[in-house]
C-alpha cells in the first residue's frame, strides 16, 4: 500500500509517488517537473510536490527582505485572473493558482524559490568584499544595464550586480536580473521565465555555496530537483 502524508498546502492525504521519466507533472511549490523523481500527489486537487520541496518549504517563514512580519505560504486564488500579483524580490508575475509566501498585513509577496536567494554572497567580479542583497536603484556594474529594486551591492565600493551577473556569466539585464514563476497543478501557469532565471541562478556554484552556508545544507535537496535545462520548467 502506498504511503501517504498530510501537508498544509493541500487538505487531503498526499500519496507518495514515483513519477515516470515521461511524466508531465509539475511541482506546485518550485514549478519544475517531477519526471523520474519521487514526490507526493493529490488526485482530487491535482496537487503535486517534490518530496524535497514538501519537506523544505514551511507554512510560515522569516525572510530578510521583509523582517517585520512572518510570511505564510498560500495559494493565489485561480479566480484572481486579471489581477496583478508580482514577486517583490524578482519582479516577475505570480499567476493565478501560484503558491507564494506573503505578508497579509503589508501585501509583500515572494516566490518560494526566491526565498532561497542568499542575503550575502561572494562574486568573482568583486573579490574584495561580500555583496549584500538590498533594495535600491542604479545601474549594474557588470552589464551596465538598469537594476531592479532588489540586487546585490557592495556599499563600501558602490558596486552593484544583477542577481544573474553575480556568477560572472552576464545576462542580468532586461527583465530585472531575476525571475520566478508560479502556477497551480490545475494547469494555470504564470511566470514562464522561471526556468531561465531564478532556478538557474540557484544552481550556480556561488549561489549553492551561499545557500548551503545559510541553511546548513538543508536546501540542497531542493536544488537537487531543479533541472538546469529550461525546457524542464513550465
Explain how this protein is built.
By secondary structure, this protein is α+β, with helices and mostly antiparallel strands. Among the domains are: 4-55, Wheat Germ Agglutinin (Isolectin 2), domain 1; 58-113 and 177-203, no CATH class. It is 11% helix and 26% strand. The chain contains four helices and 14 strands. It has helices at residues 51-56, 198-202, 205-215, 220-223; strands at 4-7, 10-18, 38-42, 47-50, 60-61, 71-75, 99-102, 109-110, 120-123, 126-135, 150-154, 159-161, 182-183, 189-190.
**Main β-sheet: number of strands, strand sense, barrel status?**
4 strands, antiparallel
Radius of gyration: 17 Å
Oligomer: single chain
Average pLDDT works out at: 83
Secondary structure tally, helices: 4
Main β-sheet, spatial strand arrangement: 1-2-3-4
- Uncertain spans: 174-192
Provide the succession of SSEs: EEEEHEEEEEEEEEEHHH
Distance between the termini: 31 Å
Class from helix and strand fractions:
alpha+beta
> How much of the sequence is in beta strands?
25-35%
| Residues in helix, % | 10-25%
Q: What overall form do the CA principal axes indicate?
A: globular
* Count of strand segments: 14
Quick overview of this protein structure:
With about 230 residues, this protein is an alpha+beta fold.
Amino acid at each position: 500500500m502506498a504511503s501517504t502524508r498530510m501537508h498544509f498546502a493541500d487538505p487531503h492525504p498526499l500519496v507518495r509517488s514515483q513519477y515516470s521519466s515521461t511524466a508531465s507533472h509539475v511541482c506546485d511549490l518550485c514549478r519544475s517537473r517531477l519526471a523520474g523523481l519521487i514526490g507526493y500527489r493529490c488526485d482530487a486537487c491535482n496537487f503535486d510536490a517534490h518530496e524535497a520541496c514538501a519537506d523544505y518549504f514551511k507554512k510560515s517563514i522569516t525572510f530578510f527582505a521583509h523582517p517585520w512580519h512572518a510570511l505564510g505560504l498560500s495559494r493565489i486564488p485561480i479566480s484572481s485572473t486579471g489581477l496583478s500579483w508580482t514577486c517583490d524580490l524578482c519582479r516577475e508575475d505570480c499567476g493565478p493558482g501560484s503558491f507564494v509566501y506573503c505578508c497579509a498585513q503589508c501585501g509583500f509577496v515572494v516566490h518560494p524559490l526566491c526565498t532561497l536567494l542568499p542575503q550575502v554572497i561572494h562574486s568573482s567580479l568583486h573579490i574584495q568584499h561580500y555583496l549584500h542583497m538590498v533594495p535600491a536603484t542604479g545601474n549594474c556594474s557588470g552589464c551596465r544595464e538598469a537594476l531592479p529594486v532588489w540586487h546585490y551591492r557592495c556599499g563600501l565600493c558602490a558596486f552593484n550586480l544583477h542577481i544573474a551577473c553575480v556568477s560572472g556569466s552576464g545576462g542580468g539585464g532586461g527583465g530585472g536580473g531575476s525571475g520566478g514563476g508560479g502556477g497551480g497543478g490545475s494547469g494555470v501557469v504564470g511566470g514562464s521565465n522561471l526556468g531561465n532565471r531564478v532556478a538557474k541562478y540557484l544552481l550556480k556554484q556561488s549561489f549553492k555555496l551561499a545557500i548551503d552556508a545559510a541553511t546548513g545544507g538543508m536546501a540542497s535537496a531542493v536544488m537537487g530537483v531543479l533541472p538546469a535545462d529550461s525546457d524542464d520548467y513550465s
